[in-house]
Design goal:
Length: 557
């Protein structure tokens, strides 16, 4: 047998090596990236035939190499870090809206505790573990480390798809970031009260948390305005991870440079695929994906706090950066600088626990239910329905003939949601569960297959128009006798900025409704009254506020 030395000398490998190396490049790599790698491989180097024998006494790279020279960060990352550390929130509208988002989001998390599919994932990784001075999880007795606390709170918030929403080139729910922000703020306060010095000893107030929410909303929302992650198969929770990592880094007392490190680590982290939101793989991971993103963000920020460096050109690096590997070689585009725009314009889910692109369709269906009742007819008299809608609705929730296999299928099917409203004059979270009255209804199953969606280009244009951002749907009902009802069109849902004042009493009523299953009426009244008093609420230290929600035992399975 030939020795490895003789084989090396006898066989010219350089051509094979170049071909092999370039074949390993991602399919998304650009021609220029491939050419660049070939040139690097073909640069002459002084080499010996025989490699120097290895010895354990040889100095290692760690011993001989100097510290890595400074490398400039991608400008996109610099901008985010600068915004986090240097921008002052001075918008009264943003702070007022953030207060309503805060209350609404906590209420949504509490409501999720009524669903076993959610609660089975909550609590410590090892049963019985209690972390001293740890994050408290609202509505539960759990006291956890901030990483697992971020998952618990984040999963609760997102479980029922009922918290706020942002619709643009990418969709998402910016209040998902509260999972990480609240977990870290609560843990820091409790630790510092016990003699610790986290975040330079700071004690966070509700106001501080609201400011963190505004900045997380802004980063997630501005990235979403012009950049579609769903079109390359990535889930929007990547933006939750990036935004939460950015905000939490400053809360931990890290420098602007370390915040750049945190943001870069969030981008380099493995990104979630959207497949769990779409047929044939629709499943419950979509409900805890945001909790997972919050958990990863906090974990990465803590690693950076211990000295872990960043990845300066994680976005732009040829071949191996985010743009080339995952974004088809395109750079991010930005519509506006970071400020407080997103919080000021965020959408509330007020009326129905339903995917946001369906909200106006369900509101229109509720009006049609009343019309049918007024003429002595019902859903049984409907022959077919046409929904004039926008492109995003069709891409996400148009599932006319898809089997409704589980909760995740039903709460992301516009035909199912409209049918439930037309049959029962309601749409509640329990209508999505297996075995529920709605899920077992033969009329709903038949009716939803007779509801078709068609895109209206004007609706799609208005959906992306920064001055409008409407989410229009229009329903036309044809009856079995051949007659048709007048089209019912709703352009902006109740939670839209154009209807914000109209929505506020309903947002508070929703919050109150979600509190009642967990607390006595006296406590509910106290919490609602506190929520309405902006000055008193914002001055309250966050751990003391969270204590108002904690329980000694779990009331739900």
């Amino acid at each position: 047998m030939l020795s490895s030395t003789l084989l090396y000398k006898a066989t010219p490998l350089w051509q094979c090596a170049v071909k092999s190396a370039t074949s390993l490049l991602p399919r998304t790599a650009t021609p220029s990236s491939r050419t660049s790698l070939r040139r690097q491989l073909l640069v002459p180097r002084k080499t010996s035939v025989m490699a120097t024998p290895f010895s354990t006494q040889m100095p290692t790279k760690k011993d001989t190499l100097a510290a890595r020279p400074y490398q400039e960060y991608d400008s996109e990352i610099n901008d985010m870090a600068s915004y986090i550390h240097n921008y002052t929130i001075d918008s009264d509208l943003a702070l007022d809206t953030a207060r309503f988002v805060f209350l609404d989001t906590l209420g949504c998390g509490l409501e999720a505790l009524r669903f076993k599919a959610c609660t089975k994932l909550l609590g410590p990784m090892v049963e019985g573990t209690v972390v001293p001075n740890g994050t408290r999880v609202l509505g539960t007795p759990y006291q956890l480390d901030p990483v697992n606390g971020a998952f618990n709170i984040g999963a609760m918030i997102r479980w029922l798809d009922y918290n706020d929403c942002w619709l643009a080139a990418e969709w998402g729910h910016p209040s998902d970031n509260l999972g990480g922000i609240l977990a870290v703020a609560d843990w820091i306060n409790r630790t510092n009260r016990a003699g610790g010095n986290l975040g330079n000893g700071k004690i966070f107030t509700v106001h501080d948390v609201l400011e963190g929410m505004i900045k997380a909303h802004e980063i997630q929302g501005c990235l979403a305005l012009e950049n579609s992650f769903n079109k390359v198969g990535l889930d929007h929770v990547v933006l939750v991870k990036v935004a939460t990592a950015a905000v939490v880094s400053k809360m931990l007392g890290l420098t602007e440079a370390q915040t750049r490190d945190c943001i870069s680590q969030a981008w380099v982290d493995g990104q979630s695929l959207r497949t769990y939101r779409h047929s044939p793989n629709t499943m419950s991971r979509k409900s805890w994906a945001a909790g997972d993103a919050c958990q990863r963000a906090v974990n990465l920020a803590l690693k950076v706090s211990k000295g872990e460096p960043g990845v300066p050109t994680v976005l732009s690096a040829p071949i191996w950066g985010f743009y080339d590997v995952l974004f088809q070689g395109r750079k991010f585009e930005f519509q506006r600088p970071y400020s407080s725009y997103v919080m000021e314009n965020v959408l509330f889910k007020v009326s129905y626990p339903a995917e946001f692109h369906s909200q106006t369709a369900i509101e229109a269906a509720q009006k049609i239910y009343a019309q049918l009742k007024g003429i002595g007819k019902s859903a049984e008299d409907v022959k077919e329905i046409t929904i004039r809608t926008h492109e995003a609705c069709i891409r996400i929730i148009d599932k006319q003939f898809k089997a409704m296999d589980n909760f995740a299928d039903r709460d992301h099917c516009i035909q199912y949601m409209v049918s439930v409203m037309l049959v029962f004059n309601r749409l509640e979270a329990t209508d999505y569960t297996d075995g529920s009255e709605a899920a077992e209804s033969p009329l709903i199953e038949s009716l939803r297959k007779r509801i078709k969606c068609v895109e209206d280009p004007q609706f799609t244009q208005d959906y992306h128009d920064p001055s409008l951002r409407t989410i229009a749907n229009a329903l036309t009902v044809t009856l079995n006798d051949g007659s048709s009802l007048p089209e019912v069109k709703v352009e902006a849902p109740l939670g839209h900025k154009l209807r914000r004042e109209e929505a506020k009493p309903e947002i508070l009523a929703k919050y109150q409704r979600h509190l009642r299953p967990h607390y006595p009426e006296e406590k509910v009244t106290e919490l609602v009254k506190l929520g309405l008093d902006a000055k008193r609420l914002e001055a309250m230290e966050i751990d003391q506020y969270v204590d108002l929600y904690v329980k000694d035992t779990m009331d739900w399975p």
